[in-house]
Q: What sequence folds into this?
């Protein structure tokens, strides 16, 4: 039952007054009842002492207790009091209320107390007095009065008390109502003001001024109102800023709740999905964008609680999709996507151009190589050592150019999808062991300690053996290049969470943190300058990803590098 504050206050006051007056009436009634009873006891004591004295005087004259009682007590002093006289054995020999000869036994209380006693039961009050003759107790006189003798007085008192307390109760209730009215009225006004503030009316003020607790409460509400007004103003300003930011974004933005329902779309996302934000609100993303790739990406990102990205190929364009988990009270994550169709088209054009240029360079480089070798084999050249030295350097540079051309052609084929892979079940453990043993003489030449470590039995994977050998050789070559003499290069292989991990670590110079994000970009050689063309790692990345694997590089400048390839078991 929901009662108002005023009703609860009045009801509490009502109960408090009722309980207080009830307790007071009870104790007052008991007190009056005891006083009336005590007065009756006193009356019986007086009457008993007087009558006992009269009986004793008569007894001294007659010498017989029964005769003395009849002579002394025949004119009854008070008809409301019953007088009884008994001998020492307790037999009643005189009873002022008896009709005919008295009979029966006196109350045992009088005998046990040797006459001088008081007692009561439910209906009556008794006072007993001993009767003496020549200094000895010869009997007892008992005065009895009914409690009903003071009932009229008690009833009259109760009626008067009830009327008095009733009047006091009514006055108290009226006073409580008046006080509650004065207390509740300002609270009701405060309630009305706070309701208006909750609706956004920041100009609403409390109209009364008080210095008590309610006045301080009103001042606190004013301070709260000003603080909330300022905070809401800031929130509104930030909201408008975010709205302008989201609206001006060229990337699509979708905010999802925990059930993958749409909470927000920016204009770019509306255009991509061909739907208005208000029409898409609270609808499942799958109903508007039923792509299995995006669905799986969202599921994996939310499960791992980290940002994931993926390129999604659509019939007419290519999107780079980022899933960012949030898990706040209002949203579970964001979907950010960018149209990279033009970028991929430019990359295709660039790759095709590089492939074509590389292909066109192969013929003249082959001819130059042939001429240089022919001249170096000419015996007449021994007479011209300077010319031979120049031709030898030319041969080295031509070989370097040929290597670059081959890497460019290889990379172009991989990016264009023409570098087909021959997948077959293979033992990555045996493959890695063979590559390490074949590469060991090269490592020994540079005084590098090359190690191979395999933790337990490694299951087979599905892959292209030649391409994976190319990957491992490239990583080992890089590790040896950047590790000083006396250093260590280790190839490790182990199982982890339904994956096989191949790692190549070294104790070399490491990679600067600023270079790590660009390490897989074509022709990137870092601030220190590379010892190749910057195509090895991009080719490695393309081959690894073609196997459905992931490649990660962990490095700290001056503390070596570790390259991990994670093959997912299927």
A:
């Amino acid at each position: 039952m929901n009662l108002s504050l005023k009703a609860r206050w009045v009801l509490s006051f009502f109960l408090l007054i009722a309980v207080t007056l009830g307790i007071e009436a009870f104790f007052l009634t008991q007190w009056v009842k005891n006083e009336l009873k005590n007065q009756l006891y006193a009356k019986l004591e007086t009457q008993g002492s007087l009558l006992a004295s009269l009986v004793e005087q008569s007894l001294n004259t007659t010498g017989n207790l029964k005769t003395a009682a009849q002579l002394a007590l025949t004119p009854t002093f008070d008809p409301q009091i019953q007088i009884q006289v008994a001998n020492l054995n307790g037999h009643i020999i005189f009873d002022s209320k008896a009709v005919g000869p008295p009979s029966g036994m006196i109350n045992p209380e009088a005998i046990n107390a040797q006459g001088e006693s008081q007692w009561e039961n439910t209906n009556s009050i008794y006072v007993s007095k001993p009767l003496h003759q020549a200094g000895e107790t010869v009997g007892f006189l008992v005065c009895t009065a009914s409690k009903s003798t003071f009932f009229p007085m008690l009833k009259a008192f109760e009626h008067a008390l009830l009327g008095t307390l009733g009047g006091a109760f009514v006055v108290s209730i009226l006073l409580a109502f008046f006080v509650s009215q004065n207390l509740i009225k300002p609270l009701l006004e405060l309630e009305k003001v706070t309701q208006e503030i909750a609706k956004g009316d920041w100009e609403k003020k409390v109209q009364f001024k008080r210095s008590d607790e309610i006045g301080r409460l009103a001042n606190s509400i004013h301070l709260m109102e000003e603080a909330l007004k300022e905070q809401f103003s800031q929130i509104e300003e930030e909201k408008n800023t975010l709205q302008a930011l989201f609206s001006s974004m060229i990337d699509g933005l979708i905010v999802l709740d925990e059930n993958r329902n749409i909470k927000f779309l920016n204009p770019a996302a509306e255009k991509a999905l061909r739907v208005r934000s208000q029409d898409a609100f609270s609808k499942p993303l799958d109903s508007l964008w039923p792509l299995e790739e995006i669905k799986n990406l969202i599921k994996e990102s939310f499960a791992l609680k980290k940002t994931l990205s993926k390129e999604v190929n659509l019939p007419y364009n290519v999107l780079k999709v980022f899933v960012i988990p949030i898990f706040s009270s209002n949203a579970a994550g964001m979907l950010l996507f960018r149209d990279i169709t033009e970028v991929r088209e430019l990359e295709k054009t660039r790759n095709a151009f590089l492939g074509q240029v590389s292909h066109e360079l192969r013929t003249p480089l082959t001819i130059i190589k042939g001429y240089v070798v022919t001249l170096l084999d000419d015996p007449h050249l021994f007479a011209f050592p300077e010319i031979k030295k120049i031709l030898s350097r030319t041969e080295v540079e031509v070989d370097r150019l040929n290597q670059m051309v081959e890497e460019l052609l290889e990379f172009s084929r991989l990016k264009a999808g023409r570098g087909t892979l021959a997948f077959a079940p293979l033992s990555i453990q045996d493959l890695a062991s063979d590559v390490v043993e074949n590469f060991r003489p090269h490592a020994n030449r540079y005084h590098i300690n090359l190690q191979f470590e395999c933790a337990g039995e490694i299951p087979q994977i599905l892959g292209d053996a030649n391409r994976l050998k190319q990957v491992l050789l490239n990583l080992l070559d890089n590790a040896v290049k950047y590790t000083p003499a006396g250093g260590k290069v280790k190839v490790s292989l182990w199982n982890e969470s339904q994956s096989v991990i191949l790692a190549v670590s070294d104790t070399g110079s490491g990679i600067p943190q600023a270079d790590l994000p660009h390490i897989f970009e074509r022709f990137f050689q870092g601030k220190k300058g590379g010892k190749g063309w910057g195509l090895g790692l991009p080719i490695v990345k393309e081959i690894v990803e073609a196997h459905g694997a992931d490649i990660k590089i962990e490095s700290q400048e001056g503390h070596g590098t570790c390259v991990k390839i994670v093959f997912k078991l299927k």
About this structure: The chain has four domains: 5-153, 249-337, 344-416, 424-568. The two ends are 64 Å apart (CA to CA). The CA atoms of residues 177 and 559 lie 84 Å apart. The first strand starts at residue 81 and ends at 87.
